[in-house]
């Protein structure tokens, strides 16, 4: 089961990705981890990537895509993988598909978490951290996990907000890239949808409504994966 997973920041994509990893025993692969691994091991690609990162520049696709391919060919990916956070734009989608095809690797499933942009932003800005346990779920914009005033809904502890969760400009910038249907991340997602339409439903396309709670989204995801 080889999966590409699309979804905006704030959609709960990471949570659902972890559930897929656990249920199907496939690695949940993120490009950030691939960069860190290559840099820490001092690979040739890692050295090239670090040079760009140290200059504050974006790592070009000519480096990123070979890194991703190398990761997908490792032993733990023999039974499948879930690639999260890449491709981030239309060009990367096209180049990734070309590179995978050249290696004889087919994407089986494309999952898209569908969520209104304002709701996604609210969910990020509404996250609150419990002083006693950061894993206690609290979000002022989600009824199911809304805190009790300014106290943790689980233990009554004090709540704080991460500074980056309150950075509207940064959130908007990330969402500008994701929700761009011409050249951005959604354009990349739509590219694979078009491939599916031309290829008798391969890869399989799964659209998930990200609006309900985690359990409801998981139930829909599992029904569609196993249907």
Report on the architecture of this protein.
The chain has 227 residues and is of the alpha/beta class. Helix content is 47%, strand content 12%. The strands form 2 sheets. The protein has a 5-stranded parallel beta sheet with strand order 2-3-1-4-7, with helices on both faces. It has a two-stranded antiparallel ribbon with strand order 5-6. The radius of gyration is 19 Å and the shape is globular.
Jot down its keywords.
about 230 residues, alpha/beta, Rossmann fold, two-stranded antiparallel sheet, 9 helices, about 10% strand, globular
What is the alpha-carbon Rg in Å?
Answer: 19 Å
| CATH topology name of the domain at 2-116 and 186-226 | Rossmann fold
What is the overall pLDDT average?
95
Strand content: 5-15%
Structure classification: alpha/beta
Poorly predicted regions are none
CATH top level label of the domain at 2-116 and 186-226: Alpha Beta
With helices defined by DSSP (H or I, 4 residues minimum), what is the helix count? Answer: 9
- How are the strands ordered across the major sheet? 2-3-1-4-7
Shape descriptor: globular
Helical residue percent? 40-55%
* Distance from first to last alpha carbon: 14 Å
CATH 4th-level superfamily of the domain at 2-116 and 186-226: P-loop containing nucleotide triphosphate hydrolases
Name the CATH architecture of the domain at 2-116 and 186-226: 3-Layer(aba) Sandwich
Series of secondary-structure elements, N-terminal to C-terminal: EHEHHHEHEHEEHHEH
* Beta strand count: 7
Largest sheet, in brief, is: 5 strands, parallel
């Amino acid at each position: 089961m080889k999966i590409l997973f699309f979804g905006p920041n704030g959609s709960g994509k990471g949570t659902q990705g972890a559930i897929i990893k656990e249920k199907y025993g496939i690695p949940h692969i993120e490009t950030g981890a691939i960069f860190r691994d290559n840099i820490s091991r001092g690979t040739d690609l890692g050295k090239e990537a670090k040079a760009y990162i140290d200059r504050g520049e974006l790592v070009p696709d000519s480096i990123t895509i070979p890194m991703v391919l190398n990761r997908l060919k490792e032993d733990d990916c023999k039974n499948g993988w879930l690639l999260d956070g890449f491709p981030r734009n239309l060009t990367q989608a096209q180049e990734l598909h070309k590179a995978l095809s050249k290696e004889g690797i087919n994407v089986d499933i494309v999952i898209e978490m569908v969520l209104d942009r304002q709701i996604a932003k609210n969910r990020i800005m509404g996250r609150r951290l419990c002083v006693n346990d950061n894993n206690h779920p609290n979000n002022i914009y989600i009824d199911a996990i809304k805190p009790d005033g300014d106290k943790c809904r689980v233990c009554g502890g004090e709540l704080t907000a991460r500074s980056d969760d309150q950075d509207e400009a940064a959130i908007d910038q990330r969402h500008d890239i994701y929700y761009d249907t011409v050249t951005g991340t959604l354009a990349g997602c739509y590219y694979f949808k078009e491939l599916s339409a031309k290829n008798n439903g391969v890869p399989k396309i799964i659209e998930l409504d990200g609006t309900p709670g985690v359990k409801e989204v998981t139930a829909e995801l599992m029904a569609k994966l196993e249907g």
